[in-house]
Amino acid sequence: MNLKNSEFMLGAAKCLSTKIPSFFVRLNSQQSAKYSSHHRLAEVGRLDSPKIQGKYDTGQLFLHRVFGYRGVILFPWLARVYDRDIPNKRDSLSENVDSGSVGKEVKGRTHTFYQVLIDSRDGPYIRAQTEAVTFLGNQDSSRSLYAIPGLDYVAHEDILPYTSLEKQPLQHELFDKFLLYVPEKDPPFAALETLKAWQKKNHPWLELSDVHKETTESIRVTVIPFYMGCRDSQASSVYWWRYCIRLENLGDLTVQLRERHWRIFNLSGTLETVRGRGVVGQEPILSKMLPAFQYSSHVSLQAPSGHMWGTFRMEREDGYTFDCRIPPFSLESKAESGDSPSNNFM
């Protein structure tokens, strides 16, 4: 069993555009004074009204409501969201964080997420190595992990749509391989056959199915697990998952993540405990200016399924410490078709 902190991390400030009454969106290209002593505002387009009902189309340009980057929608996913903050019929049942239960008593609600491309110009200013979407390459070694650059998963409510008159308003190596400018269309970008073929081929490794949420002391933790595949050897089979974790401070007081405590249950009956300082080598601070932090990591099991749950030890600015619960989630494998994930985008 291996729980490996990857080097992939994403943390960012709240998007300033939501506070600007102007008809045009202005994006702060230097979102933190940590990276520069000056700020430059750039006009990027016209802010449109967010959709309350219905889905956004392929090619829709947007600003991320929390992380502030520019992006474009490739295609939607329909996921089941298990939110432990929403009351349900079994609220009266007590829950034990250390029980290992994935919480099937929490009713799943379907919700739309989007696969998106991130503008490469914004990556440095959201403290991001935007390669958190990883997959197993077509190699013999079970540790051959490859990253797809500049991909993210965004919830419907985090999309702030905007319109630009530029033919290529986004800088990403895959933009012109996946999308075609069609001026009479709204939005004016259509999916090319290469995008459809890439989506079909990589569907098992990209698919978002379950999302888990829980809030402790105004700190919301969201977990999205992904099955990555299996690597067979003469001795055993090793199953791999990646998981994305987002922490968001919904309160007024600044908090800092100090420690992580994981419990990993294997279908074979093994329970492993993992403790350590911070996450991905950092102890992120969640403040009013930088309320959110997101990172990805990997876990491997010598069994086709398991569970994970745990806590983050948080320290508030007034010295108060508390354990922030990580909602339990399943690690489920899938039947493999034999096709390997592809990083050939052509």
Automatic annotation (TrEMBL):
> What Gene3D superfamilies does the record tag this protein with?
ApaG domain
Q: Which residues form a coiled coil?
A: none
Domain named ApaG is located at 213-338
UniProt-listed GO biological process terms: error-free translesion synthesis
Give the molecular function GO annotations: DNA binding
InterPro entries attached to this UniProt entry:
ApaG_domain, ApaG_sf, Hemimethylated_DNA-bd_dom, Hemimethylated_DNA-bd_sf
GO CC terms of this entry? mitochondrial nucleoid; nucleus
Please give the SMART domains that the UniProt record associates with this protein: YccV-like
Can you say what this protein is called? ApaG domain-containing protein
What organism is recorded for this protein? Bemisia tabaci
